[in-house]
């Protein structure tokens, strides 16, 4: 079969590899679509990426092609989504429903294995997955559903952890209306009564934000923080989701968060800020709680799928053939993909 692999740091190739053999508890999925994420670009350029010849792709949906001997509850031909977090399912956080911080499969500093960032992922004709990491998609189209596994899941998790601030009358800022941001915005619109401000450096992406229900949109420039503060009588946004995480967006996020606000860093852009325990020199107002967000729980994933089935959220996609995967990466890096790029084998 054909697969898009990292050959070595910085080098991608679409090449022939064997179709995976499945074990008794595994399922062979014929991939219908696999989304491209900035994390893929990040690992591609990691100077010491430790896993050469790995198939990328952690946003995968497709049809069940073959069932392992012990697998029940799934049928050949059924449309499925590959859940991102391959946790143990039995440790204390897992049984508490916090499988994205699994003890056994992740631990304090690592994260549980994720297909396409460790085990082979979905940018291929087939992927093998343990049956318990598959979510039935029902009538959703698996060609475009793959991004629900990350671009949908990750914002849902971040938003679910900030619901105490997303009350009617509150204001929320979404920084970055790319793959994750445009889904986060729709989830906020569908599940909260907050006023939504979308901020991006691209007018095209702000247009997408308006289509998906942003109440206010700002092109990011040196006045953005002042504009957000002006909209909120100088108080700031009750919740801020930074879906980019580069230094300018982190700076903006800390300047516009309100007292007692929920400050959430979701994008892995490498930005940082200084947190001073000494309140007199703090860069953020009183009471702000800051959270880095990784992936999401199985429950978050179900909620995303249900919202998609109801038509309340949808993935804006640009489709490429698997053979054009290297071009898709170039377009993503150039920032010219609206919504999510999807590879279709
Ligand atoms: Zn991702
Ligand atoms: Zn666990």
Describe the overall structure:
It is a single chain. The protein is α/β, with parallel strands linked by helices. It has two domains: 2-150 and 296-344, Quinone Oxidoreductase, Chain A, domain 1; 154-292, Rossmann fold. The chain contains ten helices and 16 strands. β1 (2-8) and β2 (11-16) form a beta hairpin. α4 crosses α5 (179-191) and α4 (153-160) packs across α9. The protein is globular. The site of one zinc ion has 4 residues, from loops. The site of one zinc ion (ZN) has 4 residues, from loops.
Q: Specify Rg, calculated over alpha carbons.
A: 20 Å
> What is the fold named in CATH at topology level of the largest domain?
Quinone Oxidoreductase, Chain A, domain 1
Content of β-strand: 25-35%
Q: Give the total of beta strands.
A: 16
Count of helix runs: 10
Structurally, the number of domains stands at 2
Mean pLDDT: 95
Briefly say what this structure is.
By secondary structure, the chain is of the alpha/beta class. The protein is built from 10 helices and 16 strands.
Write the layout of secondary structure elements.
Blueprint: E1 2-8, E2 11-16, E3 26-35, H1 38-44, E4 54-55, E5 60-67, E6 79-82, H2 92-95, E7 126-130, E8 134-136, H3 142-145, H4 153-160, E9 171-175, H5 179-191, E10 195-200, H6 203-211, E11 216-219, H7 224-231, E12 237-242, H8 247-256, E13 257-265, E14 289-292, H9 298-309, E15 317-321, H10 325-333, E16 340-344
Parallel strand pairs: 9-10, 9-12, 10-11, 12-13, 13-14, 15-16
Antiparallel strand pairs: 1-2, 1-4, 3-5, 3-7, 3-16, 5-6, 6-8
Helix pairs in contact: 4-5, 4-9, 7-8
The structure holds zinc ion (2 copies).
